[in-house]
Amino acid sequence: MSSAVPLPLDHGHLQKLVTADLVRPDHLLGAHPTTEGGVEGVRFAVWAPHAHHVSVVGDFNGWNGFDNAMQRLDFGYWGVFVPSARRGQRYKFRITSAQGQTEDKMDPYGTFFEVRPATGSIIWTEPFDWTDQDWMQARTSGLDEPVSIYECHAPSWMRADDGWFLNYRDLAHRLGEYVVFMGYTHVELLGVMEHPFDGSWGYQVTGYYAPTSRMGSPEDFKYLINHLHGLGIGVILDWVPGHFPTDPAGLARFDGTPLYEYADPRKGFHHDWNTFIFDYGRNEVVMFLIGSALKWLQDYHLDGLRVDAVASMLYLDFSRTEWVPNIHGGRENLEAIAFLKRLNEVVHHMAPGCMIVAEESSAFPGVTTPAPFGLGFDYKWAMGWMNDTLAYFEKDPIYRRHVHHNLTFYNMYRLGEHYVLALSHDEVVHLKKSLVAKQPGDWYAQRAGYRAFLTMMWSTPGKKLLFMGQDFAQPTEWNHDQALPWHLADHPDHRGVMTLMRDLNALYRSRRDWYAGDRQDTSLLWLSADDADHSVYAYARRDEASGAWSLIVANLTPVYREGYRVGVPQGGTYRMLLSTDDGQYGGFGTQQPDLRAHEPGWHNQTHHLCLNLPPNSALVLEAVPEEGAAPAQPGGTA
C-alpha cells in the first residue's frame, strides 16, 4: 500500500502476476488510496480464485458485507473502489467459499494492522522524508569489509517504564546509541513483521508487508532505519518465506481452499511448527514472497534479509517420515530451489548493495554461488562451526583433548561458501542456557572461558553475529516476555565482558587481516593445531593484499602454562594487542616478561616467543615493525 498511484487492475497487469513477471504485486493488490473519476477513495484488490463471493468490510461501511461487493476479475482476482473509505480505517476481506463458508480475512498485502489480538488491516499510506541517500548509494554486501551483526529481538531488547514495548522511534535512539558504543556494524532485527503470537518471536508471520504495530506505525519503523543509517549502522531483517501460521484470519486456506500453501499435507504442513508451507509452484505465491522482500529492501531501505529455515524449504523430507518425492524421485524441492534462485537474482538486480543471508543447516551445495548455478545468497550461516564450537566449549576441560579438532575442522570447508559465524537466539532458549552459562566451572572460569571463546570467534574467518544480552554475559536464558537484565551491565563481572566485546569489535574493524579475504586459503594459517594434550591453539590471521598479520594463541584449560613456545616468522619485538586475562575484562592480569622473539625456530617458523598462557584465555599479538627490516609473513597450514 504505497502512496504512489496504483497499477491499473487490467488484464495485462493481472496476467503479469500469473506469469511471474510482476515482482511488486503490492503495487496492484491490497488497499490503495486513490482517485477514480475525480472521486477520492480506496481501491481494494485481492487474489481469491476459488471464492464464490468476496466483499470488503470495514469502518467505512459498518462492517456490512453487502455494501461493497467486489467484482470478479481475470485470473481469479477481485477488485472494488470504495469512495467512502479513508486512511486510518480498519478493513478485512469477507470471503465466501464455493462450499458456502464465510470468513473475514486479513489483507495479505496490508501494510499496517491492529495491535494483536485484533487482526484488522488498516488503510495506510507511508509518507516519509528519508535522509539516508548517501548511505543507500554507498552500501555493499560487505564481502571484503567488516560485518559484525548485533541480533536484536526489538520487543524484548528494552521495555518502556510501563512495561509496554518501546516505540520504534524511542528504540532508534536507545538501540543506535548502544550499537555505536559497542562497535557493531549492523543490527539484525527479528520479530518485526506482523505476527499474532508473541511466543513465535515473529517467525509465524501474518503480515508479510507490515512492521508489527506493537511498536508503532510504518513511518515510525522507517524512522528507526533512517536513524540507524545516519549513525553508520546497517539493518538486516529476519524474513520467513518457508512457512506461515494456521491462524484463520491469515493466509491459511485463504479462499476456502489451500491457496498460498501446498494442498497435499505431506508437502504443505510442518508438524514440528504447526504451520503451512508455501506452494512455490504457484507463480502468484512466488510473486507474493518476492514482492515482500522488495518491499522491505526498497520501501523500508533495509540493507539485507536473513532468510529463515532454508533447509526446511530445500528438502521435501525435512523432519518428515512421510513425504512426496520430486519428479526425479529425489528429496529436493525443485520448486523451492527455483524460487530461491529467482529471489536472489531479482533482489540483487533491484536492490543493489543488499546482503541476503541463508540460515541453512545442511550440506546443500552452492548456497552462496551466484544463480543460476547456485542458490545465489551472499552468505550462509556457519551452522557446522556453531555446533562444533559449542560442543567443544561445553565440555569439561579435562575431556577437551578428545575433541580438540572441533575447533580446527571449520578450516577444512570454510572456503566453500561465504559464511557468517552466528551465535543466535536459537542457542540461548529452550533450556540450552546462555552462552556464558554453557561454559564449565565456577563463575570465574565460565567468564574466562567465554572471553576466550568470543576472541577466537572474532579472529576466525567469517562475518560475525551475536545475540543481544550475550555481549554482557547474560547469565540466564533469553525470555521474550521480558526486557534484557540491563542492570547487570553495571556489575564489574559483566562490564568486563562488555569491554572485551567493544575491544574485539574495534580490533575487527581496524585490522584487514581479520576481515578481508575470508575465503582466501591463506587468511588463516595454523601454527599449532595439534597440541591436544594441552588444549592450546596457535594461528595467524593474514591479509595478502596489505601484508598485515596477527597471532592468536588460546589456552583452553584452567591450567597456567609458563614459557609456552609459539613459532613466529621473524625476530624482534611483539606487541600484545589483547589478552582476555586483562583485569579490565575481569581476568587476573597475567604479565608477559619477554615479548621478543628468539631463535631457534618453532612450529616451522624461523623464531619463537615464550609466552605465559593464563588459564582459559586467548592472546592476540602482532610484530612491531623495525626500521629497515623487511616484514616477514607467517607460514603454516591453511
Automatic annotation (TrEMBL):
SMART domains: Aamy. Keywords: Carbohydrate metabolism, Glycogen biosynthesis, Glycogen metabolism, Glycosyltransferase, Transferase. Its EC number is 2.4.1.18. The keyword Cytoplasm does not apply. The keyword DNA-binding does not apply. The active site is at 308 (nucleophile), 359 (proton donor). It comes from the Bacteria. It catalyses: Transfers a segment of a (1->4)-alpha-D-glucan chain to a primary hydroxy group in a similar glucan chain. GO terms for molecular function: 1,4-alpha-glucan branching enzyme activity. It is an enzyme of class 2 (transferase). Pathway: Glycan biosynthesis; glycogen biosynthesis. It holds the Pfam family CBM_48. Residues 162-502 form the Glycosyl hydrolase family 13 catalytic domain. Belongs to the glycosyl hydrolase 13 family. GlgB subfamily. Monomer. Catalyzes the formation of the alpha-1,6-glucosidic linkages in glycogen by scission of a 1,4-alpha-linked oligosaccharide from growing alpha-1,4-glucan chains and the subsequent attachment of the oligosaccharide to the alpha-1,6 position. This is 1,4-alpha-glucan branching enzyme GlgB. It comes from Deinococcus enclensis.
